[in-house]
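Input sequence (240 aa), recorded before submission:
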Amino acid sequence: MQNITEQLGKNFSPEKALLVYSNNGNRYEKDFYIESYDIDDSGYPVNAHPLSALECRSLAKALDSSGELRRSFLKSEGLLPKEVLFIDPSQTGYAVWYSPAQKVHLFFRDDLGIPCGCAYVPPLVWKADRTKLHLFALKSDLGLTLGSKLYKAPFFNISDNGKVCMGNVKIEIAPDCSLEGFMASWQKYFMGSYFTHLLGSGSAVKGNIVQLWQSLIGTGKKFPVRVLVENGLTLKNIIR
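Predicted structure, token format:
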């Protein structure tokens, strides 16, 4: 971030005013028009005109601090973690990484008939941006390539395309979040939320998913990767 301490003692006077117009499209498809006003010696807006290219460049320079935030997004705190598979560090960027087979604490809604507790999960592939998460499973995390097959994540609350329904979990990812903090936050959000219901048109595993987790919670058994269901995707399909 730029240090503006020295500028605080300076006198500033209004020079430009911007008025932003939009059409009535939805928030993803709105068109915008920006009108610029000069400010006269009395402080009144005059000379209304469309925002010029020169004014745009000046405005971009003034807002450079927000650009610095974007450049910090998904920036590693040191050497890249070995689990990282792909990074798009743009303002709307995302990261793809894997987590190895491991024991985690899982939470289930009471009516599922599965006790909350610790169980082993298979290797997982995570794809996330600042607002949404997609999750997939692997039979092995050794020797991953673009052609490595992905499987449905064997959990509740996940659609056929891997998108996770986070329910009422409040997602808070800072604009300047580091790569390590980003990965840790999403894994904490997912593993710390309650599984409530199945999504999608097909089974998330071969067999009964409720019985599967009943047999794994608190037993120390390794996750049986033979029950994973192919989803027709490879790593190449989700890195784009």
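Checked by second reader. The radius of gyration is 24 Å.
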